């Protein structure tokens, strides 16, 4: 289950295309490891949510990590330009585990080319909860029966030893 910010265009049959992702800015100049600067850069990608603890504490200056709310309907930005006193620096953007999002059926987990709506793949089966519940009951009953048999044999052995 995913929890996300409510939107007036919410449709329960569609998954939200807006997801929080950890984004890395590798080889960022050390003087840009400030919250305001990092959030300004994160705004280029999406809506910044929070900084990684290592980034806040400047424990590692090899890359900065920011959790950013990203819309998967839009192409993910791979790099952008930072102008520092007239010098342009190309800043790479690395996404940690960005999920696939199908723009056709509006679900996370596959791309449009693999979508069952288009007929490229079989429709994923929905789990039958009734069968799962019955299987769980059978397992519990079998476990209880097994325990009862063990308990009986222990009592039987104890009573046989007492005689």
TrEMBL record:
It comes from the Eukaryota. InterPro entries: At4g02000-like. This is DUF4283 domain-containing protein.
């Amino acid at each position: 289950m995913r929890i996300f910010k409510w939107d007036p265009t919410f449709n329960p049959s569609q998954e939200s295309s807006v997801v929080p992702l950890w984004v890395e800015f590798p080889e960022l100049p050390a003087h840009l490891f400030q919250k305001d600067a990092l959030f300004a850069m994160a705004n280029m990608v999406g809506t910044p949510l929070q900084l990684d603890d290592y980034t806040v504490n400047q424990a590692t200056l090899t890359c900065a990590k920011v959790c950013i709310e990203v819309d998967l309907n839009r192409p993910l930005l791979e790099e952008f330009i930072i102008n520092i006193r007239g010098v342009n620096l190309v800043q790479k953007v690395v996404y940690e585990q960005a999920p696939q999002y199908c723009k056709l059926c509006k679900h996370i987990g596959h791309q449009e080319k693999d979508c069952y709506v288009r007929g490229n793949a079989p429709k994923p089966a929905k789990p039958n909860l009734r069968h799962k519940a019955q299987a769980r009951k059978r397992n519990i009953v079998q476990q209880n029966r097994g325990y009862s048999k063990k308990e009986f044999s222990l009592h039987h052995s104890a009573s046989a030893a007492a005689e």
